[in-house]
Amino acid sequence: MQGPGLSEGDLAFYRENGYLMIEDAVSPEDLAELQAVARDFIDRSRRVAESNDIYDLDEGHSPSNPRLTRIKLPHKQHPVFDRVLRSDRMKSYFTALLGPDVVLQTSKLNTKAPGGGAAVEWHQDWAFYPHTNDDMLAFGLMLEDVDEANGPLMAIPGSHKGPLLSHHNNGVFAGAVSPDDPDFHFDQAVTLTGKAGSMTVHHARTLHGSAPNRSDRARLILFYEACAADAWPLLGAGSYIHRLPQREMWADLLERMVCGEPVLEPRIEKVPVRLPLPPAPDATSIFKTQKSGGARSAFAA
Ligand SMILES: O=C(O)CCC(=O)C(=O)O
């Protein structure tokens, strides 16, 4: 799909396959601003020595060689990430795929560093944050060109209609499926490459992952993850949302509404659920969860 708007064909493809590619998803001006701000954040991480509320640091990070896995909750860190999230174009994608009432679940800017930036092992986002129904997805806006070499997102078509695979290892939630799981079919994976400004969509139950960045270029993908507002999170998932007292939780929910209104009657569907508990020793990001949970890599050479 190219340019603004999603066609009936796009929606049918997404429903069938659990993923979609949208080219030129944002305006050239917005893309240029997002790129400049993202590069500036990476530059400022030179002064940071430990992962914190903004930065998730990759191995080998130093002032002379900034290496991040992620900038956390970018829509809270800089207004441009929030403005683009709420742009008419993005809203048209959200409502086409999720209906009139849409709430942001989270955002993240995965910044896979050049020369080995960490893999994201295969998983279903749903395993991290089960809800009362699965009208949930992630947009992945490419801020740099993404090709085979710099760790593109990969997805298994149709897996959103299949089972929830185990993401546990050694009795903890390790945030990744076993490469030996009989329901994990690596041979069916598709690779989602594209020019900067292209955007992937994947359903919360779609199996996906990405290899290490073997190139000399950063791989910057800005993820906005959202759900229909009648999908309510189940307690036990890792988000900060569950830690908020009631009034703060309500204010936070209002802030996260991208389109429409909160829906106070959760739609409860028969969806497969297993809570991501007990948490891995370090559950502060997917990278730390997978590493400290001892997840085995499906990308090992
Ligand atoms: O950055 C990637 O390649 C995948 C990210 C992802 O799946 C996640 O953070 O949950």
Bound ligand species? 2-oxoglutaric acid
Helix proportion range: 10-25%
Shape: globular
**Strand tally, please?**
14
- The total count of helices amounts to 8
Name the assembly state.
single chain
Annotate the secondary structure layout.
Layout: H1 8-17, E1 19-22, H2 28-44, E2 55-57, E3 68-72, H3 74-77, H4 79-85, H5 88-98, E4 102-110, E5 120-123, H6 125-128, E6 136-142, E7 153-155, E8 168-169, E9 172-173, E10 190-192, E11 199-203, E12 208-210, E13 221-228, H7 246-256, E14 257-259, H8 286-292
Antiparallel strand pairs: 1-11, 2-3, 3-4, 4-13, 4-14, 5-12, 6-11, 6-13, 7-10, 7-12, 8-9
Bound molecules: 2-oxoglutaric acid.
Structural notes for this entry:
By secondary structure, the chain is of the alpha+beta class. The chain has a single domain (8-292), classed as Sandwich (Jelly Rolls), CATH 2.60.120. Helix content is 24%, strand content 20%. It contains 8 helices and 14 strands. Strands 1, 2, 3, 4, 6, 11, 13 and 14 form an 8-stranded antiparallel β-sheet that branches. Strands 5-12-7-10 form a 4-stranded antiparallel β-sheet. It has a two-stranded antiparallel sheet with strand order 8-9. A hairpin with a 2-residue loop joins β8 and β9 (172-173). The radius of gyration is 18 Å and the shape is globular. The relative contact order is 0.21. Residues 108, 110, 120, 125, 153, 208, 210, 221, 286 line the site of 2-oxoglutaric acid.
